[in-house]
Amino acid sequence: MAIPNNNRIFYACQAVGFQAPHDRVTVPGATDSACDILHGVQSVGVTTNFNLEQAFELGQIQIYENIEGLPEVEVTLEKVLDGYPLMYTSLTCGAGSAKIAANNSLVNRSAERSNIFLGIYDASADVVGAGSGIQAQVFISGAYINSVSYTLPVDGNCTESVTLVANDKTWSNTAVDAAYGTASPLVNATAKLTFDSNSDNKGDDLPKNNQTGYFNGGIQRRENIKMGSCIIPASVIRAADADHPSAGTISTSSGNNYNVLTQQNTAHIQSITISSDFGREDINELGKKTPYFRAANFPIEVSCEIEVISTEGDWVQAYEAGDSANIGTANEGNNTPEETIKIVLDDGTTFDLGSKNRLSSVSYGGGDAGGGNATMTFSYTTFNDLAVTPPNTGTR
Question: Quick one: which of 184, 207, 192, 161 has its CA closest to 45?
Answer without folding.
Answer: 161
